[in-house]
User: What shape does this take?
Amino acid sequence: MPELPSSSLITEASDMIKTSGLMVVSTGAGMSSESGVRTFRGEEGFWREYRAEDLASIEGIRKNPELVWEWYRERLKACQELEPHAGYYSLERIQNEKEILPLITQNVDGLHQKAGIMDVIELHGSLRTASCLDSCGAPGKRMTEELFEILPPRCSCGSILRPDVVLFGEQLPEQALRRAFRLAESCDLMMVIGTSMVVYPASSLPLIALRKGVKVIEINPEETPLSSLDGVLSLHGTAGSILPEIVKVVYGE
Ligand code: BV8
Assistant: This one.
């Protein structure tokens, strides 16, 4: 069982949740790792073998369509077969008790929704559909097993398809990003879980909250650029082990 932060830190985080009004959660790939989805960086990250730009970018898909689609097939399969871990259900409990818990995610795996979390803002899209790499206008296709029978999957116009995730170098969905910035500006507590704080503009959200004097709770087994900033309560450990402990203190069993 991974070691937990001290009970005083867990209590401090729990008190912040109890007394908070609008609490916002922001998650990265680390939130999914205890459900079996590999992270991008960190110890067992994908990107030890590949550079991000070689995979999640338009150039990468054009240069290595089979490699990139192999990667997305592996991730889609994982997301379909994997179940949310206890940490997701702890967030669902907080959502049910507080009635509002906006959750901003960089993840595309849909696991938050699988755990019953309702208000999920997908900054980087999702693995639900794919569309024409050359934007021919043909309707997008659902990302199902059939789509992967022949790699790379093709649009009806003959071009290669691309997953409807936000690739590096692409703008984020405007509405999602605008709402995420507004939440960072207006929340009075932000919990940041499982992100290395590398990818922009997602990484700017906790910094916006801190600049407004808002407290930030970070849950991550590793140090990140956020960990040592003033106003951050850094809980070193995993989402799946820490979140249930916090919920126990906040709401009892
Ligand atoms: C944009 C979808 C305008 C696809 C993804 C130079 C400097 C700064 C920025 C840039 C730059 N050059 C270009 C940029 C902008 C670029 C960027 O930020 N690049 C980075 C690499 C420097 N950003 C963009 O291009 C964005 N668009 O800005 O548009 C623009 C355009 C052009 C040029 C400038 C501006 C688009 C970014 C979106 C890319 N798409 N995903 C897909 O998923 O397939 S990014 C993808 O990687 C994820 O979505 C996520 O955002 C990122 C991975 O980061 P994390 O989620 O943090 O995961 P990571 O593995 O890194 O870390 C996991 C953490 O969890 C670790 O800390 C680990 O310790 C922890 N952990 C592990 N286990 C656990 C745990 N924590 C808790 N519990 C555990 N059990």
Notes: Residues 1-37+84-124+172-253 form a domain with the Rossmann fold fold (CATH 3.40.50.1220). The first strand starts at residue 23 and ends at 27.
